[in-house]
Design a protein that fits this description.
The protein has 120 residues and is of the alpha/beta class. 34% of the residues lie in helices and 10% in strands. A three-stranded parallel beta sheet has the order 1-2-3, covered by helices on one side.
């Protein structure tokens, strides 16, 4: 069943973000459809620094825009998790220069703005 707050929320933000941002390829479907070879796609792990990651700025912007919730793709089709999952090493903590959990800061920042936290 739908949560009661959702019908009144009106505006939510859905964020697609992952290693595909390094080269700007069209998300993880690019290797699935053969547009980018899988090896090249996965080399983006080496360039994913999350140097511009600023979840507080994101949350403040979302709140100013009138959003009531945000949903972040925590693991995309490529299998790369934005947190340190116990299910393998394919995550930004162990496999990228970013080297830290990107979910906790996101969730904390949204909660500070009284926004609902979503993960996909």
């Amino acid at each position: 069943p739908m949560q009661p707050w959702f019908t009144d929320a009106k505006l939510g933000i859905f964020i697609h973000w992952g290693i595909y941002a390094v080269e700007g390829v069209p998300e993880s479907w690019s290797f699935y459809w053969g547009e980018v070879p899988h090896e090249r796609y996965m080399r983006q792990l080496d360039g994913f620094t999350a140097s511009r990651y600023d979840p507080r700025a994101w949350a403040e912007l979302f709140a100013r825009a009138g959003a009531k919730y945000a949903v972040l793709t925590a693991r995309h089709h490529d299998g790369v998790a934005l947190w340190d999952t116990a299910h393998g090493d394919l995550n930004v903590v162990r496999s990228t220069p970013a080297g830290h959990d990107l979910i906790a800061g996101y969730a904390d920042a949204l909660r500070e703005q009284d926004l609902k936290v979503g993960l996909y």
